[in-house]
Amino acid sequence: MIKAAIFDIDGTLIDSVDLHAHAWQEAFAKFGKKVGFEDVRSQIGKGGDQLLPVFLSEEEQRRFGKELDKFRGELWKAKYMSRVKPLPGARQLVWRAREEGLQVALASSAKADEVEFYKRVAHIADLVEEQTSADDADRSKLHPDIFEAALARLKNVDAREAVTIGDSPYDAIAAGKLKMASIGVLSGGFPEAELWKAGYSEIYRDCEDLLERYDESLLARKRAA
Questions:
Q1: pLDDT in tens, 134-161
Q2: Does domain 4-15+85-224 have CATH number 3.40.50.1000?
Q3: Could you tell me the CA-to-CA distances from 163 to 35, 90, 121, 158, 200 in Å, in that order?
């Protein structure tokens, strides 16, 4: 029986993946690292703690990793964050999950203040019961820490009674470490084959598609139970 829906944000509820990739690419260039757009885009969904080691050596991480991550965060807020838009069906899907009696939480690798901004962008601030961010976990996705924090804040829900909805392989990998089922959406731009390989149980075009097919999805198990 499903009791809760735990939503990722970037690429799932808001259109931000390309913008994040551009911000990271610009930040790397600032510190003399030439990183291809598609290379960094494929890592979006991870927090900086998991993304930086993909592109920096251990010596580079020690020398300027924290400074680069800080610069990227400031650049994101100054230049890119205001350009984020909601994805089709985002509010309607979250509303439907609430109407069906599911507890709704957000679990993002973003910082807490960014999550607050994204809630307003997606028009879901009034629908979300709990939320966790990079500030609530020692390690970001693809580790399960953020999902563990979300489950701890929900009422009487264990991992097998929750479904996460995400766009990146890292959401499914993190959820799978807790034996939590996951639904994938293609709105983040990750290849469908890559999402299946990561362990998603179902994949939809976007939130709008999932909403249209809600009754046949994992989210509808509450009524069938």
A1: 888 888 888 899 999 999 999 999 999 9
A2: yes
A3: 34, 16, 23, 10, 10
